[in-house]
Amino acid sequence: MIIGVPAEIKDSERRVGMTPTGVDELVARGHRVLIQSGAGAGSGFSDDDYRAAGAEIVATAVEVWNAAELLVKVKEPIAAEYGYLRADLTLFTYLHLAADPALTQALVDAGTTAIAYETVQLPDRSLPLLAPMSEIAGRLSVQVGAEHLLGPAGGRGILLGGVPGTPRGRVVVIGGGVAGTHAAQMAVGLGAHVTIVDVSIPRLRVLDEQFGGRVDTRVSSRRTISDLVADADLVVGSVLIPGAAAPKLVTLDMVERMRPGSVLVDIAVDQGGCFEGTHATTHSAPTYRVHDAIYYAVANMPGAVPLTSTLALTNATLRYTIALADLGVDEALAADPSLAAGLSIRGGEVIDTRILG
Could you tell me which residue ranges the Alanine dehydrogenase/pyridine nucleotide transhydrogenase N-terminal domain spans (predicted)? Predict the structure, then answer.
């Protein structure tokens, strides 16, 4: 099979869909891998690194898209790439279609087979291809939140860990899944006072045991979230409903009651965000103000650490890429229900109805 890996063109996106190690594995199995020249530079991989692994380097995105049978990316195609979509192409990438009706329609119109990383699901309901980026986004959320709490960034001027004789910063994490857990780990490590909110009492029990009493846990309700947000310095939104739009759990009324310079980081922005007032931002312009609070809603947060992210992503996706290449799309989907769960669009039809709301 011919596998194509184009350069990512979303704002400040420096990740790449495959490492040289991934190329080596596919080439050793008899497949051709086309890499757009410079695609790996932002992640620290040169064209020569890919050549040494057996890839063919091509000059333009057009060449990669037109030749590929299976196209492996990181981020969803943006409008400038819609013209490359076609009926005999399989696209394997993050898609987040519930928050992107224009892309959904473009894929339907083109007849492209689209398999979404974020909805590949194991029997235990875990999301193996979303997990590594959720881990990274969770950790980054507290890192960037702490940065924007600094006075020069327009924040409250508070140190999350405080010092003796001063209060610690208060961090509220809404959603106790993979991203939320990693956000809490970072916040605890910085010495903040951390509260995790989740709808699942069994999940809160697991988190209470995991953190050994170093975090507070609360069952999610509108009143609980309202009270916690009002007193928070940093709110991290990490709510996920696989394949569907995120619920708006923090309202504008709640934000209005926050102290000036407080920060909200919406990890769920790819799925529309879980804060009212969220809209996607970029690494070049990551924040905006809502009332007197600072929203950070970068839609590709892990792109800020492209080397770590690319390595982690290929570690997770490569086995599925190999299956698609070795078996062909039909047989690979039939053989693996987990991979089949990622099938979003095929033959001009939406397969995953969660996309439609």
Answer: 4-137
